[in-house]
Amino acid sequence: MAKNTVCIWFDHDAEAAARFYAATFPDSSVGAVIPAPGDYPDGKAGDTIVVEFIVAGVPCIGLNGGPHFKHNEAFSFQIATDDQEETDRYWNAIVSNGGQESECGWCKDKWGVSWQITPRVLTEALATGGDTARRAFAAMMSMKKIDVAAIDAAIRG
Fold first, then answer.
1. Which residues, at least 6 apart from 134, have a Cβ–Cβ distance to it below 8 Å?
2. N or C end of the chain, less CB within 10 A?
3. Per-residue pLDDT of the chain (157 residues; tens, 9 = 90+)
């Protein structure tokens, strides 16, 4: 296990989430699936309590801790995409698998984990500053899934 690992709390479905992430994003995999050595408040000995996984190169663990804590937008994975095809592929995978759309490139998967599917052209335009950033930002504010052609058009003015 990596020295620094993102721990994500799940109700009881960390393994299903980890397997979905591994099947959806490159450089992703599922590692150890660890059973609880004893009963705990929301499970029994032998139930999966921890799942080690990697999402797009980021080491994570899923903790099956029960329904006590819910996900929110204070934590999200941000996936940088190179074009509309890649943006569509990840967005559609998340949303069509029981997830939901949000605003400005954000969506949630069926487990409630937030994702930002962000084309690099948008990030680069915002980093440029000035009028380019203002135009790209204004275009983004009207979107759910980011439309790369519309961001390109906004950048050109």
1. none
2. C
3. 789 999 999 999 999 999 999 999 999 999 999 999 999 998 999 999 999 999 999 999 999 999 999 999 999 999 999 999 999 999 999 999 999 999 999 999 999 999 999 999 999 999 999 999 999 999 999 999 999 999 999 999 8
Q: Supply the DSSP symbol for 13.
A: -
3-state secondary structure of 114: strand
Distance CA 56, CA 6 (A): 13
Position 68 scores a pLDDT of 93
Maximum distance among all Cα pairs of the chain, rounded to whole angstroms: 62
> CB of 104 within 8 A of CB of 140?
yes
Q: Which two tokens stand for residue 17?
A: 């989430």
Tokens read off for 92: 């559609």
β-pairing, 106-108 vs 114-119, is: antiparallel
Residue that is written with structure tokens 């994570």 in the block: 60
Q: Are 111 and 10 in contact (CB under 8 A)?
A: yes
Tokens of 98: 């029981």
Q: Which long-range contacts (C-beta less than 8 Å, at least 24 apart) are formed by 89-96?
A: 90/24, 90/25, 90/115, 90/117, 91/117, 91/145, 93/24, 94/24
